[in-house]
Amino acid sequence: MTDQALTLHPLLDRWWFIAILVLPGIFILWQEYRRDIGFRFLRMIAALFVITSIAALFLRPSFKTEKELSIVLLTDGYKKEQADSLYKVNNNLQFYHLPDAKTYSRSTKLASVNDITSIEKEIRLVLGNGLPDFAWKQLKNSSASYISGNLPIGITAIHIPYQIYTNRESIIKGNYTMPTDGNVTIKLKSPAGIDDSVKLKGKGVHSFRLSFTPRQAGNFLYELMVKSADQTQHEPLPIVVHQNTPYKTLFLQQQPTFENQYLKSFLSRKNHSIVLRSQLSRSIFRYEYINHPSVSISALSKKILADFDLVITDSETLQSISSAESKALEEAIESGLGLLVLMHEHAGSNRNITKFIPWKVVSLKTDTTNIILSSGKTTSLTVAPFSLADGGSPLQSILQNKRGTLAGFAYTGSGKAGFQLLQNTYPLILQGDTISYSKLWSPVLEQIARRRSVANAVQIKSPFPIYTHQPVDIELTSTDATPELKDDSIALPLTEDVRIDNIWHTTTWAGNAGWHILSTRDSVQLPYYVSPDNAWQSLHAANLIDLSEQHSTKEKEISDNKYIAYTPISPLIFFLTLLLSLGFLWLAPKL
Amino acid sequence: MNERYARYRLHHLLRKYKLMRMSEAFVLALALALIAFIVPYIFHVSLAGSLALSITGGILLFLLHCEQLQLFKLNAYKVTVYLNQHFPSLQNSSDLLLKENEELTGLQQLQKIRTTQAFEALYPSIRLPHRLLQALGILAVSILASFTLTSFAPLLTHQGSKIKSTGTTENAAATIIAPAQVKQTNITITPPAYTNLKAQHTTSWALTFAEGSAIEWTVEFTAGVKNPSLIFSGKENIPLKASSTGIYSLRKTINETGFYQLAWTTEQGETKHSDFYKLEVIKDLPPVITVHKLNQFTELEFSNSATVDVHATLADDYGLDNAHIIATVSKGSGESVKFREDKLLFEKPATIRGKHIDATRKLNLARLGMEPGDELYFYVVTFDTKQPIPNRSRTETYFISLRDTTKQETVVDDGLGVDLMPDYFRSQRQIIIDTEKLLKEKKQITKQTFQSKSNELGYDQKVLRLRYGEFLGEEFESGIGPQENPAEEDHDHEEEDITKKYGHVHDTENEHNLVEEKKGGHDHHHHAESKEGEADKNGIPAGFVHEHDSEEEATFFTQSIRAKLKAALTIMWDAELHLRLYEPEKSLPFQYKALKLLKEISQDSRIYVHRTGFDPPPLKEEKRMTGDLGEVKSATALATAARSENYPAIRKALQVIASALSPDSLHVDDEMKKNLTQAGQELSTLAIEKPGLYLKSLSLIRALTENEVKPAEQRSALKAIETSLWRALPAATNAPAASTRTLHELDQAFIKNLRTHD
């Protein structure tokens, strides 16, 4: 407190109020003066006190002080030493703590995070794990710095793959922070039991990977069991398993090969639609339609190709297709089609080859290579006696080993043109190793195939985990003019992005723990899981720390933040004065 | 006396009034207590609480009512006051009755006497006020109300609302759940007689027993039931037979592992099912035989006392019935090998009985009639006591050969009963044998027969030579076919037969495809004849000319082998010459020489297998791709290879369970029960193979669908079901999946710009 002055905070407009008060005041004084009983002087004073007290009760005088106020907000996980040393430097600091933080002797408890609005302008420092995003947004106008406290113990980062498919190995990655030396076992538990586990040893941050292969599509609750020396934590891990969506493939071949035959039956058994065009002579073709209605594809056109997601052909066939077909193929790829060329030879002079396979050719002597497909098993396969390297256009590799890229592609417009150098992979099926075969082909086919465009895509911007009654930020990309988004059955209000068209934002408040579904009008669905409050504590803390560090004001803006504080004089004093005065006035005639 | 009597009457009145009024209070209190008990009880206040409430209420009302009527302060004076007020004939003097005469004045005494008389007259008509009937009415109403209220919430459900719990362990389950209305069960397992196991009695429904056991279930129900039956492995439904009132039984012999449950219909028409229980069959394993201290291949020197000790340990889980050694002696070699099979019994012990036996047998090779070069193959075979078809097991075959010191070492692999050499190399030996036989028979047969046979051997020798000649690259000058002198043409057919008889079938059948069958049978004839005709012109029969037109082209063998083969062929020529000249005795040394050489060749080089497939004629380059395809149409093939998912119901149920487990509250509805039942049907097919893995879940599904699981336990039950359903799904191969994206205008613009700036 530096400087004091008395100010008034009248309940009613002061002037007419005083005017009202002055008249009866004078009247009372006059009356007391006229009454001929003793104590006149004292009675006069008492009457004055009565009037003054009434005036004071209504005018509410208070002391005005100008003081510098800085608040330190203590959140869960703050270090007591930090608070102590801050207080030592500046004992004008006020401390507030959130309900989940430890109590601090000098601090005042806030009922919830939402209460920081009352002190938002004064908060200079946030200690501990920090505040959630929405709280930081409230503090936007003030410049608060953040000092992190104790590092959270446990899982501090987790990455769940965006797309998980049935019968495909998916990997969950994460970090585990261990403060002291010790042993921790993390197990991934599927509904069927333990799928994978990892043992971590020693102090520090450990990264871990856990793999699993779901067998059924749906929303399932897996569990991460974190077993340390003294306790076992069970963290619910929401996993959304997608069904494989089959697509349409067109095979173009000059003569039937075993490779194509097995690839075709592999795909058709997985319910993919397949059309095969096999050239028997110049004008005679053999057509096969598997899971597909019969359509005429005697000459490729952009319209025909637009119906397919992937075209598989081999280098010989590609060389021989007519220039009209080649052009149609090129245009179709520009607009999204995928082309996979099984390379047997590389005729550098052929126009079609240079158009679709523009990479630099490096001749090699060997024609076999070893690749590891599943769990350390090395498979030896024949390969074309050359490799392709980054030349004409950037090469994205899908399969590679020491020899170089074995399968890869390049983005061409919105589609892709790629190649496969491996020859004769079908013996894998003959050996009964269909799993290796599918591991070899699935990524190649999938990455090159067309990605179908959808009108709407929903994305949750809030980091995992989401807790009950917390805001969930959602971003919707939609080509609709008036998109709709529902959380379970409640329509959410959408606001379009200020700068970018077709991007919409909204916020929903997470309901009960469990699964909820965001759905758009065209049945695009995004299930999300609201975790119970006691789950993922360490991860949540780590998320908060990250976020708080982002929001923290970097340069410490030392502002002379002086402000005026009013300390009201207790009205009780005036009330007692009033009582005593009135009492005296009542008693005086009786004395 | 009169006065005293009147005073007594007064006191009597007082007591009567008190009694009536207290009864009235009591009845009212009872009515209140009843209501005070029933109402809280209906609203699930505990029994003790309701009782306390009602008793307190009752007592309070009783005391209050008594107090209200001032019953505790009541005395005779108050009665007199009442009497004075209500009966004017007493002239306000009834209180005098209570006073002693001594206390009264004379006037008072007089009045007392009058009052006494009046009281006497009045007494029978005195009616004290009370509301007992009203109180009884209230009680009746309250009793009625209680009954009405209790009928809304029957006492039974309140007290016994505990649902019978599902047991977790199988044994416990057996006695607790299955007989939800089963009073008693008794299961008798009678193992088959041959096992010598005792019959078992048990009350546990999960059974493990020996294969082929007869199992008798005796089930006693608490109440009458209809159609009780046992369902085996979810398929076979066998009704139980009523043996006496309320007791049912079934006897069944079971050979396969599986599971079963009890089903019955109660008299109310409700069909009940018990849990699933396993039927685990312990298979009768075949006997185990171990032969000690004997190599699989043994070679012995020949001596008269050569013996082999066969020492075998036989063991079986229930008992052995029989065991013996099957010995086969092979005599001779090549194509003349002869086999003799013997069944030899063990010497010690004489009869095979018991679970574990050490059996021995000494094999005297000489007594088995074995000579040098002969081989003995034997194996031990045992049978156990299983009925009706005993388990049989046998050992590997053991080989014992007696070394033939007199013969040249030609056997490729010691002791192997099969000669791995191809047929061609055997034929030379066959010819030798036949020649020797012919020489032996020379005296018994006619000259003509002798000559014919000799000639025929010559023919065989020729065929053999031609075959070898092929290896050397010799041109096939003449076909393999009958080539006899014109004079002997009439023997043609007969000779064919003879050829067959002497086992040359192999050579002519060309079964190994080593030599191309160049011509058909008829072709042979003509060709051969014409060739022969040509040869005759030159004066020398073509078949006898030793020609090597193209030998230099032969590339099958290395130089040394080629030289040897050439030599062998030359010797064969000589052998054939002598045979054709009817001089088999002269031919024999050549034959032996040829055989020796052939053997050497076969040792030197193992390249005998020369397979030739179809060799197409060369194409004319200018004619390639010139065919007229005008009428060839493009072909179209339509097919569907879509595969539906396996275990659709299990997959559906998994999704349903997962969504049901997600929220805090759990509700098992009819839709879910239907899904679970269907999944259970798929699971039961799996459970037949692995009852231990899936039976518990099957039981849980059944319990859930029949509402036998407490709401508090439903979550854990569903989790257990989910686990085993998930486990039941087989691993499948991965498949590429179509992925989606939203193409934002900016993305498209970006790609477009990227292309233009390229």
Description of the molecule:
The complex is a heterodimer of chains A (591) and B (758). With 591 residues, chain A is of the alpha/beta class. Chain A folds into five domains: 2-66 and 568-590, no CATH class; 70-150, 3-Layer(aba) Sandwich (Rossmann fold), CATH 3.40.50; 154-238, Immunoglobulin-like (Sandwich), CATH 2.60.40.10; 248-448, Rossmann fold (3-Layer(aba) Sandwich); 456-531, Sandwich (Immunoglobulin-like). Chain A has 13 helices and 39 strands. In chain A, the strands form nine sheets. Chain A has an eight-stranded mixed sheet. Chain A is elongated and about 140 Å long. Chain A starts with a strand and ends with a helix. Chain B is α+β, with helices and mostly antiparallel strands. Chain B has five domains: 3-149, no CATH class; 179-282, Immunoglobulins (Immunoglobulin-like); 288-402, Sandwich (Immunoglobulin-like), CATH 2.60.40; 444-481 and 549-605, no CATH class; 648-728, no CATH class. Helices cover 43% and strands 19% of the residues of chain B. Chain B has 19 helices and 21 strands. Chain B has helices at residues 2-42, 47-68, 76-86, 106-122, 132-152, 155-159, 170-176, 423-440, 447-472, 492-501, 505-509, 521-538, 559-580, 584-604, 648-661, 670-689, 691-705, 711-728, 745-757, and strands at residues 182-190, 200-202, 207-210, 213-221, 225-232, 236-239, 241-244, 247-254, 258-266, 271-273, 277-282, 288-292, 297-300, 307-331, 338-345, 354-364, 375-384, 392-394, 398-402, 635-639, 740-741. In chain B, the strands form three sheets. In chain B, strands 12, 13, 14, 15, 16, 17, 18 and 19 form an eight-stranded mixed sheet that branches. In chain B, strands 3, 5, 6, 9, 10 and 11 form a six-stranded mixed sheet that branches. The longest helix of chain B is centred in the N-terminal third of the chain and has 41 residues, at 2-42. At the A-B interface, strand 14, helix 5, strand 18, helix 11 and strand 29 of A face strand 20, helix 15, helix 18, strand 21 and helix 19 of B.
